[in-house]
Amino acid sequence: MPDTTAPLDSSTDREPLADLPGGVAPVLPFLYVAWADGMLTPAEIGVVRDRIAAMDWLSERDRAQIAAWLDPSAPPDASTYFGWVRTMRQAARRLPSAEGADLAGLGEALAGLAGQGDGAGIPAEARRALEELEAEIGVVGEEVVRDLLEAPAPPEEERRAARPAFSVGALQSLLDAPHAETRDRIRDLLSDPFFAYPEPGISNDAYRTLILQWVQRLGEEGIGSLAYPEWAGGTGDISRFIAAFETLATHDLSLVVKFGVQFGLWGGSVQQLGNEEQRRELLPAIGRGELLGAFAMSERGHGSNVRDLQTTATFDREADEWVIDTPTDHDHKEWIGNAARDGRMATVFAQLVIDGEGHGVHGFLVPLRDEGGAVMPGIRIEDSGHKMGLNGVDNGRVWFSDVRVPRTALLGRYASVSPEGVYSSPIPSAGKRFFVMLGTLVGGRIAVGAAANSAAKAGLTVAVRYGARRRQFGPAGGPEVVVLDYLSHQRRLLPLVATSYGLNFALHALAEDFAALDADADTREVEGRAAALKSMASWHATRALQEAREACGGEGFRWSARIAHRKADSDIFTTFEGDNTVLQLQVAKGLLGGYRQEFEDLNAWGMLRYLREQADVRLGEVNPLARRNTDEAHLLDPAWHRTLFERRERTLLVQVAARLKGRIDRGDDSFDAFVEVQDHLLTLARANAERLVLEAFQDAVERVEDAQLQNTLRLTCALYALEHVERDRGWFLEQNLFDGPVSKAIRTQVNALLGRLRPVAVELVDAFGIPDELLGSEIGAGRMPLDP
Amino acid sequence: MPDTTAPLDSSTDREPLADLPGGVAPVLPFLYVAWADGMLTPAEIGVVRDRIAAMDWLSERDRAQIAAWLDPSAPPDASTYFGWVRTMRQAARRLPSAEGADLAGLGEALAGLAGQGDGAGIPAEARRALEELEAEIGVVGEEVVRDLLEAPAPPEEERRAARPAFSVGALQSLLDAPHAETRDRIRDLLSDPFFAYPEPGISNDAYRTLILQWVQRLGEEGIGSLAYPEWAGGTGDISRFIAAFETLATHDLSLVVKFGVQFGLWGGSVQQLGNEEQRRELLPAIGRGELLGAFAMSERGHGSNVRDLQTTATFDREADEWVIDTPTDHDHKEWIGNAARDGRMATVFAQLVIDGEGHGVHGFLVPLRDEGGAVMPGIRIEDSGHKMGLNGVDNGRVWFSDVRVPRTALLGRYASVSPEGVYSSPIPSAGKRFFVMLGTLVGGRIAVGAAANSAAKAGLTVAVRYGARRRQFGPAGGPEVVVLDYLSHQRRLLPLVATSYGLNFALHALAEDFAALDADADTREVEGRAAALKSMASWHATRALQEAREACGGEGFRWSARIAHRKADSDIFTTFEGDNTVLQLQVAKGLLGGYRQEFEDLNAWGMLRYLREQADVRLGEVNPLARRNTDEAHLLDPAWHRTLFERRERTLLVQVAARLKGRIDRGDDSFDAFVEVQDHLLTLARANAERLVLEAFQDAVERVEDAQLQNTLRLTCALYALEHVERDRGWFLEQNLFDGPVSKAIRTQVNALLGRLRPVAVELVDAFGIPDELLGSEIGAGRMPLDP
Fold first, then answer.
1. What residues of chain A lie within 8 A of the CB of B740, using their CB?
2. CA of B379, closest CA in chain A: separation in Å?
3. Where is the Acyl-CoA oxidase C-terminal domain (chains A, B) (predicted)?
4. A388 to chain B: which residues are within 8 Å by CB?
5. Of B317, B403, B325, B398, whose CA–CA distance to B366 is shortest?
6. ipTM of this model?
7. Which of B767, B772, B778, B766 has the alpha carbon at shortest distance from B191?
8. Which backbone phi and psi does B14 adopt, to 5 degrees?
9. Euclidean distance between the first and final Cα of chain B, in Å?
């Protein structure tokens, strides 16, 4: 069992005892004995107090302080008490021989270490007074000292009350940056009883009503319109909106999804694809949550491949209208949020057709229901039915049959059609237009990635706090051990905590870069990062919530632990806003093409040229010394971590390019060639995401000014890096990037890092800053009672 | 895209064409042309029929058959048609040159391959007649032959209708052995509308009522008492009971858990811990589902560490009674199935105390409710509350306060107390007694492992069938591709299918061995295997259901897919009946101690001796040639697979023994030493389970008599083996058990196996034999309509 009180950096053992209270040092052992479990009666504590009050070699101020600490009816707080314990343990370890030391001796030694009497000890009278007191209260000092050295770690609750080596608030500020005030606003809002979680057995209908009320309240509070222009009640800052979304996701996930549908997808489609007139007309009411709407893109047969959507919008020149149609019964819109019950309008994505000529997928404003809530003529809506989770969201299926909307219902920022039926667009290429349109999904992907990480953080908060309290098994005859003190338990939880930290920094940096893009910037790098991090974060959430559930055992299965709820709701995060596997394949293709263009748009020769560029890059030899270096300093070196992650990504890129080139050179169809190397493409995309996270994490660590905090974060980052290298060590070994002994040393080092981070594990999740009201977990509450 | 029509084993290409219908061989190309999409009109088909009817060189029987096949109003069934296609493809590939062959020529070649005319071809008049017919119907034979060779694979639905190379029924029989008839009985029973799934929004109360009715019906049908003696309505065969349990688990998991509580845990505790009188009195009513009861072992603070249960049963000599007490409010029984609502009695596990002396944990028969359902005096019961899943089971918390039961309420097989308060037991050691008592859980562990595998099979059935129908993306301008044809999709599903096969064989063998144990056999090997396989199977279920959900995309999130339900319900399988991590640590300790005794019972010297035995074993050098051999034959060699799995387990065992020995030699506390090597212990336990599964799988393959079937299973087993080696290749590389090139070749070989198994993927899951009524999945039904 690791010593949970050991400082993170063992070098501090050689520094002065920080916690040692100068003047009271000699009597510290008596203060400890007075309050140690069951050692003294209240009456005996009173005796100690009276004796010490009479020791006039102590300063008056010290005596007053000691008397206050020895009031039998008012024990010191846990933080103070464990401060004494920590100090005495540190001191006792430095004694030339702890064997045989009594309380008076320990007190004298403490005084020496505290610098009293220039290390020459305390006055002889003082020493005598202490010895008398020791005899009077009848404790065997040697035993006390020995117990002190061997005592089990203080219970987690009390340990937490003790001052950590850094401020949890400061750590939370790092995670909250750069929109701490927006996050705090959400935390405050959602802590209101109005947002209290419903009972678990709630009907879908009542749940939807509740979630709708919540969403509308957020609209009233101006949260929904954060990303909109100021004239629409917003701040024009998409990054602030994403921060709000991310924080909402520490609460009920039906709320965050319905919120995202209304303000992000529906409102976002108007904001980003609409012309000035459309935006002025609709955005303010959308932002206030008054005009509820849907984003009708996915179809039954086309969830991922939206370029081939089947819904048509055909121009009727006579009527000056668009005619929206669902060609067959199977081509209906599917999973459309806000459609089954609440939506009044929708942005419907359809193939724009004029005189039999298709211009590709475009968005159209289509009313779904009238003022009274009746579905409009020609439209059929069905409920998507009961789901694994997110049953507070009214997903629906929509069919269109000869539904007519005015010519001006075409969202007009990137396309317009004249009354004569002449199509025009500022973007001439249909392919490019399609990608610009899909670009509207990028903000949603970043937000979903961040929300997934919030769900992961919530689950890990519950599991780490519970693990720090739950006792099970223990040494023969001894007390049971807190389960987080088991290596197996640390192994399952702490690397996930580290990954949530890394994703936090990477997603926040991405949101800022996304918000900073100007209108004609090349968006592909940001889009690629969004796809990579959305995949990684949502898979991370699935894994973290699974581990959290299992780590809490049966308690994690209880609804009131609020892991089940988050697990079921967030499961679909790996699928919606872009299926993770499809996104990863896009990421890999983007890396191969240098983000120049989707491969489908290239002919074989164009593709070959790019692949050749990639495959021709030579990778230098790896330094044979580095390959065999098992020194701890080397293993913990951030630069080495970065080299490994970069090298892996680059090598995979070159290898997959060479494979593709080989296949296409010999005449394979490019589609088949890509299918055959899919496993390599997925590996490449994963390596890319993990490298992005490492870089953002390391950059964040570098920016920290407080040394203690920076040290903790550096270790957390090293845990992220090494645990990921360990998981993929098969690849590194195959490629000779390091040898077997290094691989084994990495495993040992991961274990060592777990031991070093264990003492601050609870602080690491406390810094996620999830209020108890939002966490909603009985076993995970921050202010939980002590285990009996 | 892999060629889905390639035979599984290329060597069969050199064997006779099994499907070639002898006499009709020469006209086969015309039969094909007649029915191939859009090639001939009904009138032209009539012409072909009339011409062939006149070919008197054909036998009369063949001509009648051909005429039947060429009835324009009655097309042949898909199975027949695709049989022709397959035969001709095989034949066309063997032609010296397919280029330029016309229909007549192909027919002649077919006849030759079928052995007509001793390979000398068909009569010249016949050849002429065929040429004339070819000219008359006006098809270009060369094109037909070329299309035939290049034709895309038949649509999945039609391919499935075609006769596979082996019988799905025969494959299912292998999986069902040795209790096929019991399984079929359950399948029939549960296919009755009485067992139809409830609506998803059902209240917990209604759900519990439904599940209770189902359990009682199974009791009436004699399913609950299968393991009991014949006088109690059973067969005395625990393995048959486990088979029933496993099959039930392909349906609603609340049912199987409540069934397990009633008949396995409650009834099982009476059967195994009760004396003859207690068994005669209670078992028949329990088995019929009339006397509902609970198994009250777990406590809030003691879910895993049951040796330290807090509930006490104190002997009151005066009253000749036991007094059952829950010492503090926190020591209540927790998660007790059947307790919250339905249970009338319980086996309560408590510390047996006589005159202040404890004799360890024992089971006591305690009435929970009276005839009217009122809770008995001194007992307090609360509902365990809403759960992630299994809400059809009434789990409860139970407190006892001065609850009195007669002296004879002590379950009396292994312990009894005389009226004078003298304790006696046939097992003198308290530690041994404790393990014998825990042995009652072993059957439950095997059953839970098998049930977990059933849940995994159900999820995989849904995902594989759906993946074989769902189309998404495709080559430019071409049709969209069935997603199961993507390597990435095969990668996520097929290895899991292979693992379910392996677990199936391993768990069935284990159930047989368990059932065959006689009363005084050493049970530790079987207990160790049960712990290892329960852990592996339940984690496998969690993973398989997660992958199944994701592989089905949004459709998998729908309740009607019936993945959500299984996922939520089975999540706790990794925790109950022994937490997986705790079980794995026990497995590892068992391996270290040669199953001699739990380590806690050994003193440091005893432990050292065992560790030394293990650590002293020398592992021979690995053959350097084998380390570098990348030949396919070597990579697919079952003996090599077994060597790798055995070597890994043995090496891990020796290494962890050496580590422990080092720590204990230097004076570490044994508890701390074990905690420090926990990660190694868990790795060892995993390696052990995977080896057990490989062995059982290979043994099962060896026993198969049908060559085609055996070949398919051998490839499935190789996929299991190599994919597990690939996942753990980091370890194998670290240990120099193979080199980097072999590691890469393994990955390539896994991909090749996926391609070879893809064509039978649907048959592999069909053979799990889950009727649509039990599967309960809209998208996973076996008789699903073709995708439009």
1. 733-736
2. 22
3. 643-781
4. 549, 557-559, 563-564, 567-568
5. B403
6. 0.79
7. B772
8. -90, 0
9. 22
CA A495 to chain centre: 12
CB contact (8 A) between residue A733 and residue B730: yes
* DSSP SS3 for A706: coil
- Give B164's DSSP letter: P
Q: How many whole angstroms from its chain centre is CA A568?
A: 17
In terms of DSSP bridges, do strands A293-296 and A345-354 run parallel, antiparallel, or are they unpaired?
Answer: parallel
Give me the residue spans of the domains in chain B.
10-161, 174-272, 293-426, 442-775
- Cβ separation B733–A728 shorter than 8 A: no
Distance CA B559, CA B556 (A): 8
pLDDT in tens, A569-593: 999 999 998 899 999 999 998 898 7
Nearest-CB residue to B559 (from A385, A549, A669): A385
DSSP structure string for B195-232: GPPPPTT--HHHHHHHHHHHHHHHHHTT-TTTTS-GGG
Lowest pLDDT segment from B70-74, B129-133, B530-534, B703-707 = B70-74
Q: Which CATH class, in words, describes the domain spanning A442-774?
A: mainly alpha
The packing angle between helices A42-53 and A124-137, to 10°, is 170
Q: What is the largest CA-CA distance in chain B?
A: 110
Nearest-angstrom CA–CA distance, A471 and A146:
24
Which residue out of A679, A682, A736, A742 would a mutagenesis test of the B interface target, given it has the greatest number of B Cβ atoms within 10 Å?
A679
- Which residue in B296, B348, B324, B312 sits closest to B401, CA to CA? B324
CATH number assigned to the domain covering A293-426: 2.40.110.10
CB nearest B564 (choices: A203, A388, A546): A388
Question: Mind telling me how many Å the CA of A660 is from chain B's nearest CA?
Answer: 14
Q: Which fold does the domain A175-287 belong to in CATH?
A: Butyryl-Coa Dehydrogenase, subunit A; domain 1 (1.10.540)
Among A554, A560, A788, whose Cβ lies nearest the Cβ of B575? A554
CA distance linking residue B86 with residue B19, whole number of Å: 8
- From A37's Cα to the closest Cα of chain B, the distance in A is 20
CATH number of B442-775: 1.20.140.10
Nearest to A488 among B335, B581, B731 (CB): B581
- Is pTM beyond 0.90 here? no
Contact A204 B203 (CB under 8 A): no
| Burial classification of residue A533, based on how many CB atoms lie within 10 Å of its CB (0-12 exposed, 13-18 middle, 19 or more buried) | buried
pLDDT band at residue A94, thresholds of 50, 70 and 90? low
Q: With CB atoms and an 8 Å threshold, state whether A682 touches B788.
A: no
A712-741 pLDDT, tens digit per residue, is: 999 999 999 999 999 999 999 999 899 999
By three-state DSSP, how is residue B406 classified?
A: strand
Query: Within 10 Å of residue A327's Cβ, how many Cβ atoms?
Result: 12
Tell me: cis bond preceding B2? Omega within 30 of 0 counts. Answer: no
B515: tokens are: 């059932």
Residue A368 near residue A381, CB atoms below 8 Å: yes
What was the pLDDT predicted at A788?
Answer: 31
Per-residue pLDDT tens over the stretch A524-565: 899 999 999 999 999 999 999 999 999 999 999 999 999 999
pLDDT single digits (tens) B489-538: 999 999 999 999 999 999 999 999 999 998 778 888 999 999 999 999 99
Question: Which CATH architecture fits B174-272?
Answer: Orthogonal Bundle (1.10)
**Preceding omega of A638 cis (within 30 degrees of 0):** no
- Between β-strands B293-296 and B312-316, what pairing exists: parallel, antiparallel or unpaired? unpaired
CA-nearest residue to B490 within chain A is: A679
What is the pLDDT at residue A749? 96
Q: What is the dihedral of CA B263, B264, B266, B271, to 10 degrees?
A: 100
Min distance B235 CA to chain A CA atoms (Å): 34
Minimum mean pLDDT range among A186-190, A249-253, B128-132: B128-132
A5 compared with B712, residue with greater pLDDT: B712
